[in-house]
Amino acid sequence: VELSEFDISYVPRGAIKSQVLADFVLELTNPPNESKPRPWTLSVDDSSNLRGSGAGVVLEGPDGVLIEQSLRFAFKASNNQAEYEALIAGMKLAKEMEV
């Protein structure tokens, strides 16, 4: 096709840089409303005396959710052992609650 008789010339289009395109898309999209998951808190309290060993587990969640569990061990345990057993029980409780 002869374009010179119409005084038309072909000018190739410049390349669009990928970062410019990415910035443009980012500018036009709304970020999703991602709320940060609110943490749960696991507290353990243990006791060991001549009568036996026991522990308490408290799982505290957002909006005032409070789950308490008391444990009585059928074996003699030191305070450290009772605390570890309570921690394991609390972790199992958290897993069951899908926290």
UniProtKB/TrEMBL annotation:
Residues 36-99 form the RNase H type-1 domain. GO terms for molecular function: nucleic acid binding; RNA-DNA hybrid ribonuclease activity. SUPFAM superfamilies: Ribonuclease H-like. InterPro entries: RNaseH-like_sf, RNaseH_domain, RNaseH_sf. Transmembrane segments: none annotated. Pfam families: RVT_3. PANTHER family: RIBONUCLEASE H. This is Gag-pol polyprotein. The lineage of its organism: Eukaryota, Viridiplantae, Streptophyta, Embryophyta, Tracheophyta.
